[in-house]
Amino acid sequence: MAVKKVYPDARSALDGVLQDGMTVMSGGFGLCGIPSVLIEAIRDAGTKNLTVVSNNAGIDDCGLGLLLVTRQIRKMVSSYVGENATFAKQFLAGELEIEFNPQGTLAERIRAGGAGIPAFFTKTGVGTQIAEGKEIREFDGATYVMERGLWADLAIIHAWKADTEGNLVYRKTARNFNPIMATAATHVIVQVEHLVQPGEIDPDHIITPGIFVNRIVHVPNVAKRIEQRTISPAKAA
Q: Is 231 inside any structural domain?
């Protein structure tokens, strides 16, 4: 019997999965490739005390920033949060916990979790606050710090194209963090711009196999915000 993975909207896709206090991985890089529709559905559901693993915390009115405004996030595990004033205010007031990671370390922690690797050693962060309280070892005369792999209860991700079996294709920068998060959670829910039938995607183009994906939401006209717009000055006529 075929498993039905496609849901009519984000609310129904998240139904029965969301729980207070859960750990959620949220894909994307900056505002590129973020699961914005799924984030909005979590906000509307009111799920609270969340630990969120993400490259960033969005901005004040977009992405994970929406969940900070409603105070649904208890802790962020991130590498960059510099664009969000709400984040800074809550953190400085002691209302939000943060576990900072060097960006490569965060990516490897997620990849390791998905690969069943409980911990690994890296040079990054040795001798800094990042290494405080962590195991330190020497290998071949060099010092390394131990980092733990990450696993989440739920991963919400964005893909450019999917078939109804959940095979995913990402596009350009939106590929950051989404594929590795799809391997590192108990439940994986994806919002996808283009939904096709099985067999319509070239197997060589599939980045995340459907075995990792539990539920799919088709979002053909999803808004794509630009975090910082940079343009060239107009040339004189």
A: no
DSSP letters spanning 152-170: EEEEEEEEEEEETT--EE-
Write the CATH number for 64. 3.40.1080.10
Q: Is residue 233 part of a domain?
A: no
pTM: 0.92
Cα→Cα distances 137→100, 101, 141, 142, 144, Å? 21, 19, 10, 8, 5
Domain range for residue 125? 6-218
pLDDT in 10s for each residue of the chain, 237 residues:
568 999 999 999 999 999 999 999 999 998 899 999 999 999 999 999 999 999 988 888 889 999 999 999 999 999 987 778 898 899 999 999 999 999 999 999 999 999 999 999 999 999 999 999 999 999 999 999 999 999 999 999 999 999 999 999 999 988 999 999 999 999 999 999 999 999 999 999 999 999 999 999 999 988 777 767 778 887 776
> Does residue 193 lie within any of the structural domains?
yes
The answer to whether 155 and 180 have CB atoms below 8 angstroms apart is no
Cβ neighbours around 142 below 10 Å, total: 10
Torsion 191-168-208-62 (CA) sign: negative
The answer to whether 23 and 51 are in contact (CB under 8 A) is yes
CA distance 95 to 100: 16
